[in-house]
Amino acid sequence: MSLSWRNRTRIALCADRVIVLRTDGRKVVSRDIHACAGNAATGTLETLLAGPDLKKTDATLILSSHFVKFMVLPLDASLSMAEQRALAQHRFSEVYGEPESGWEIRLSEGNPVLASAVEKGFLDTLKLAFDASGVRLKSMQPYLMAAFNAARGQMKEDSAWFVLAEPGICCIARLQDGQWQGVRLSRGAITGAQLEREAMLAASDADRTIYLCAPENPDVRIGGNWKVQALHCGPVTGIPTGEAGLYAMASVGM
């Protein structure tokens, strides 16, 4: 078997669990969900990386919204990338405070941009765990971006709401003409009343379409006068249909 088709791992880091998929490049060959007590997700990940099962693999790491902050920023096109990042750093520090290690910032394409921020100290801990284990970290990305990119082909409306629901937290994002307009993290389950508040804060009552990505809770219902379209995870070879939602975060984009 060619090396290009084996030894790949996809890991989703959540607040209360670590999801691990081993693939040969074409299908999932093993899958596990490791529950974590309290805030022990990083410790659980370090233990898994140090074990024999993931040795000599290339890994993709998906970060739950529990670990990421988001903000939509209009940027001046005349600014350099360094100046844009400095502006984003300033805005995140204004809104969320300045962690001791600072923020690691990523910016999407377009204008306004969707900016994501993760504490540098947290990222350093993750990178050190991968370096020490010999597992090569090839890609790290927020679940919100991975899920949105994977679902974009199912979204026919350019002006709508995109809701990504995870256990215990959800991202509520608003799009207008295909551009990011706002994003908010909310603890707990999503409700129609909550979306009405978001629409009121955004001074937008015209866009009533919601694209809902809730693979781990496909039975979630949103009340109110909303047109809800559930986004579906594509089938992944090696994962039974009944378990697809449980592994959706780790398999997103496969």
Search tags:
alpha/beta; Nucleotidyltransferase, domain 5; 3 domains; five-stranded mixed sheet; 33% strand
Question: Quick recap of the structure?
Answer:
With 254 residues, this protein is an alpha/beta fold. It is 25% helix and 33% strand.
Description:
This protein is of the alpha/beta class and 254 residues long. It has six helices and 13 strands. Helix 1 (41-50) runs parallel beside helix 3 (120-133). The longest helix has 16 residues, at 81-96. The protein is globular, with a radius of gyration of 19 Å. It starts with 7 loop residues before the first strand and ends with a helix. The model is unreliable at 1-6 (pLDDT under 50).
Quaternary structure state of the chains depicted: single chain
pLDDT < 50 runs, ≥5 residues: 1-6
Number of strands: 13
Q: CATH superfamily of the largest domain, please? A: ATPase, nucleotide binding domain
> What's the order of the H and E elements?
EEEHEEHEEHEHEEEHEEH
- How large, in whole angstroms, is the Cα Rg? 19 Å
The backbone outline, from C-alpha atoms, is globular
Structural class: alpha/beta
Mean pLDDT: 89
